[in-house]
Sequence to fold (165 residues):
Amino acid sequence: MGQGQAGWEQICNLQDNSGRTSCAVHVYSCNAAILCDRHCTVAWLQGKIRQDGSGLATFKATFQCITFRPFKGEVLDCIVSSVNKMGFFADAGPLQIFVSSHLIPEDYEYTSVNGDAFVSVDATTQIKESSEVRIRIVGVRTDPSDMFCIGTMKEDRLGVISSDF
Fold:
C-alpha cells in the first residue's frame, strides 16, 4: 500500500482485518508507527503489551488513506480484460483503463477471426483478452465511488509485454 507522489509512508507490518478494498476505511493490526501527510487520517483505538516477552505494544488503529491513485502521464502494466472494434479495456489492479483504437499504433488491425483481437500487420504480436500491455494514462475521471482512465499505446516503450500467440 502506498502512494509515491503524495509522499506518505507506512512503516508497519500490516494485516487487513476489515476485508475492504482500496479507497475505503481499513482496520489494521500494526506493530509500529504510521507516518502520514494530509492524505491520511489515523485514529488509535486501543493498545496492549504483547504477551510474548518482547516488551512490544500492539495497537489497533483505524485509518483512511489513498491506496491507489493513478496520475495523468503515469505508465502502468495492465492485463487486457476485453477487446472490441472500438478499442480494449485493461485492468491494473482495481482500476479499469480504456484504450481507444485511435490510441493503438497504426500497425495493429482489429480482427474477429479466432476471437476479438488487435493483430500487428506482420502478425507477430496481438492484443487479446489476458494479454499483458504497458500503457500511459492520458486521462483520469473520478467519481465518488469509482475511477476510470483513458490510456494510450502510441509512444515508445509502450505496447504488448506478453501474449499467448
Observations:
- The two ends are 34 Å apart (CA to CA).
- The longest strand covers residues 132-142.
- The mean pLDDT is 75.
